[in-house]
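Quick one: structure for this chain?
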Amino acid sequence: MTQKKLHPSVLKFKEFVKNNPNIIQEVRKGNASWQELYEDWYLLGEDDKRWETIRADKKSDSETKTETKGDLMSNLMGMVKKMDPNQVQHHINNLSQALGAIQGVISQFQGSNPTGTQVKPQEGPKHPFLFRKD
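Got it. Here's what it folds into:
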């Protein structure tokens, strides 16, 4: 494979992006394009305030993730406490009936062969350990 030699400034920008992975997230979210970020980096430099906001987002994202995990567990526990066992049983019964109806429809399609050639399971011997005496 032939690789193109990149301009040294592009290589430096790639290194900058590797050191600041939140820049990748900004592009994936659609907040900025690579071209815009490269131009800002080239014109403003690495020490500009623009990059500080992205670095600050990195710290807040990690803090938010730990808070979100705690909130998720507390939300789940709250939902479990609020559940009505009778309602849960009713929904399980409805789901069971729906699955039974789906199985019935599937078995009708599987059971109806237009040619009438249904595959029958092989029957084994009635007594598999029956030995004849000489």
